[in-house]
From TrEMBL:
Matches recorded under InterPro entries: GAF, GAF-like_dom_sf
Residues spanning the membrane: none
Name of the featured protein: GAF domain-containing protein
Top-level taxon of origin: Bacteria
Pfam family, one: GAF_2
All copies of domain GAF, residue ranges: 33-137
Length: 142
């Protein structure tokens, strides 16, 4: 298994997840590039997001290096342009956690499940798991 596959197993075990992706931050383009996905048909590796997420999300996760927690469908709809696909996959709650190493944002974990599946405790667990993605996002094994 790769580093990110192992991480997905941990996320499933410790939090539960319906959709899990890992995005690498590409600062020169202010873009996020998908490097791992639990749903390759809907969210293929290599796909990129730029203006698809709200500016406030970028300020929170990338610039502020803080998690974004959307506990319900309304929060997901407000921030993500692909909210209809997210809902079709049965997801209505999201935790986005920046992966930070040596003071730099390397990427973001996207952890989604049914509406109401997560709380602040789940966000803390997700934050504790985020550093496990750093080796893969530094360009190592994905």
């Amino acid at each position: 298994m790769t580093v990110l596959e192992d991480l997905e197993v941990r996320v499933r075990k410790e939090l539960g997840v319906r959709l899990f992706t890992v995005l690498a931050w590409v600062p020169e383009r202010r873009a996020l590039r998908r490097v791992h996905t639990s749903h390759p048909a809907e969210y293929p590796v290599g796909g990129e997001k730029t203006v698809e997420v709200a500016q406030g999300w970028l300020v929170t996760c990338i610039e502020g290096r803080k998690p974004f927690f959307g506990p319900d469908r309304a929060a997901v709809r407000e921030v993500f342009a692909d909210h209809e696909l997210i809902e079709r996959l049965g997801c209505g709650a999201i935790i986005n956690v920046p992966v930070v190493a040596e003071g730099k944002v390397l990427g973001v974990l996207n952890i989604l499940d049914a509406e109401g599946a997560y709380d602040e405790g789940a966000v803390a667990v997700a934050e504790s798991l985020a550093p496990l993605a750093a080796p893969a996002l530094r360009g190592g094994e994905r």
